[in-house]
Every structure is written in structure tokens, then in C-alpha cells.
Write a structure and sequence with these properties.
3 helices; 195 residues; single chain
Length: 195
């Protein structure tokens, strides 16, 4: 004998299906939460290592507000002295936000950069991850060179047909340098030193 289809039976069946699916999703989330968090931490540690000189121990994370935006940064030390900061920075590109990890040495030189995420046009703006573009920022001294694309009067060679992406990448680095300056001023004030 078949069960008669009515609103009560259909609602009960739908409720059971929803509960089973919710339980399965919660189980999968519980099983994958830790591996996903570990992978994200490994990616961040790898990005930090790629943008700063060799260091001892573990990076020390902190954050600072600058112009109403919160920036995360990580200081790294060698022989008990801070040698560099790995600063997370971002700017709006053509296809969306470009997120970078920017390494700035204790004396304010951009040591290296690493793209954390980007959604630029493949074959054009997405070339920002290629060494042909990103390597020009290695050991970049912002006091000697302008962090602007050549089209805007600076010293950065833009990606062909991707000026917006190049500007965003450069802007993210300039923000990181400003964060470094703010960190440096804060450290000087804490120790009572004068510049």
C-alpha cells in the first residue's frame, strides 16, 4: 500500500532530507576545517619566507591601523634584532582586489613581493605573478625610485596592456611602505628614540 501524498507527508519528507543534508555538511566541515586552516597557515608562512631575508624563529604577527584600514604584518628577527617586516597589503585592480605580501627590511628597502591572491585577466593582468614583472621590485629603495608606473612619472615598468593592474600592484607596495613607516614611528616612540 502506497503512502498517500499530502502536505504533511511532503513537509516531513523535506524536513528529513534537509536534516540529513545539514548533518552531512556539518560533518564534512568539521573534518576539513583543520586541514584548510593548516594549508592557509602554510601558505602564509611560505609567503612570509619568500619576501624577507633569512630569519630565526617564527614570525611575530601584529596589526596596525593606517588611514582607517587595518593592516596585518609579521616581524622577523635574526640574532634578536628585527631584520624585516612582511606586510599584507592590497589594492583594487582591473578584475578585483590584488592582495600582496610585501617584505620591507628594517631600513625601509622593499626586499621582495609575493601575490597572495588576484583575479586579473588571464594573459594580461594575471602576468603580475610572473617574475618578468614582480622581480623589478626586489631590493627596491623607495627613497631613490618612485613607486609609480612610468606612464605616471615613476620608475615601474608596467605590464603591457595592463596599466590598471600595474598601478594596483604598485599602490599595494606603496601602502606597505607607508605601513612600515608607521610601524617604525610607533617603535621609535615606544623606545623614546628620536628620528
Amino acid at each position: 500500500m502506497a503512502v498517500e501524498s499530502n502536505l504533511k507527508n511532503m513537509s516531513l519528507c523535506l524536513l528529513v532530507i534537509c536534516l540529513v543534508c545539514s548533518g552531512l555538511l556539518a560533518g564534512v566541515d568539521a573534518l576539513t576545517a583543520e586541514p584548510i586552516a593548516n594549508a592557509a597557515a602554510a601558505k602564509k608562512t611560505s609567503a612570509i619566507s619568500a619576501v624577507v631575508p633569512a630569519f630565526d624563529g617564527e614570525p611575530v604577527g601584529a596589526s596596525i591601523a593606517l588611514d582607517g584600514v587595518e593592516y596585518n604584518y609579521y616581524s622577523v628577527s635574526k640574532d634578536s634584532s628585527v631584520v624585516a617586516y612582511a606586510i599584507e597589503s592590497s589594492a583594487g585592480g582591473f578584475g578585483g582586489e590584488i592582495r600582496l605580501m610585501v617584505g620591507v627590511t628594517a631600513d625601509g628597502i622593499v626586499y621582495n613581493t609575493s601575490v597572495l591572491s588576484q583575479s586579473e585577466t588571464p594573459g594580461l593582468g594575471a602576468k603580475c605573478v610572473e617574475p618578468a614583472f614582480s622581480d623589478q621590485f626586489r631590493l627596491w629603495n623607495p627613497s631613490e625610485k618612485k613607486l609609480l608606473v612610468r606612464k605616471d612619472g615613476g620608475d615601474v615598468d608596467a605590464i603591457t596592456a595592463s596599466t590598471i593592474t600595474s598601478r594596483a600592484y604598485t599602490d599595494a607596495i606603496a601602502k606597505a611602505v607607508a605601513v612600515w613607516a608607521a610601524i617604525n614611528n610607533e617603535t621609535m616612540e615606544e623606545t623614546g628614540d628620536e628620528q
